From TrEMBL:
Domain Plasmid pRiA4b Orf3-like: 12-135
Name of the protein in question: Plasmid pRiA4b Orf3-like domain-containing protein
Region (Disordered): 154-189
Composition bias type Acidic residues, residue spans: 167-189
Top-level taxon in the UniProt lineage: Bacteria
Organism whose genome encodes this protein: Niastella soli
Length: 189
């Protein structure tokens, strides 16, 4: 049974991506679910895939449901469409759009096909993660637990010695006094 490995890039920053492995007989619904899990998104919004080409143009739609919008061609449904049936090219690409209000875009690219499946992996599965994923509803990543950890590790709390506000009036007075002292030293020499 063929195992497909896809790289899912966050559309706004291609240094952020997740690699997922999925069997060719599994559905786009399963791919949709593993992408959401890999990026730590919930499963509460509309979603669709578009078959794409090397120029990332949107082609045939593979949708979570039939939505109330105009379609040129009726969409395929994720739950009924096996991934293998939509692979038309060894470098097949798809565009994945999640939450039509926020319009989260992901570029999905087939990066390898393997004939051997691993008994250690429960497909579909994320097999590689690169970069901090965007937060679905607000701040996340470095500005959450990791920032707290850094503050504790490096003692970065506000008001800690070494931290001040640039341009404090006291600093300017001190600077003026030291310049006058230096000038006086230059006069003596």
């Amino acid at each position: 049974m063929a195992v497909l490995k896809f790289r899912i890039y966050f559309e706004e920053d291609d240094s952020i991506y997740r690699d997922v492995a999925i069997k060719h007989t599994q559905t786009f619904l399963q791919l949709h679910q593993v992408i959401l899990k890999a990026y730590e998104f919930d499963n509460k919004h509309q979603a669709t895939f578009y078959r794409s080409n090397d120029n990332w143009q949107r082609g045939r739609e593979i949708s979570l449901a039939v939505y109330d919008k105009a379609y040129k061609v009726a969409p395929l449904l994720m739950e009924n469409t096996a991934i293998g049936t939509e692979i038309k090219d060894p470098n097949q690409k798809f565009i994945y759009v999640y939450d039509f209000v926020k319009n989260w875009g992901f570029l999905v690219e087939l990066i390898s096909v393997s004939k051997e499946e691993s008994s250690k992996i429960d497909y579909p599965a994320m097999v590689k993660s690169e970069g901090i994923a965007p937060s679905q509803y607000g701040t996340k990543g470095i500005a959450g637990d990791k920032l707290t950890e850094m503050e504790e590790k490096y003692d970065l709390k506000a008001g800690t010695e070494g931290f001040g506000t640039e341009g404090d009036s006291d600093d300017e007075e001190d600077l003026g006094e030291s310049e006058e002292a230096e000038e006086g030293q230059d006069d003596e020499a």
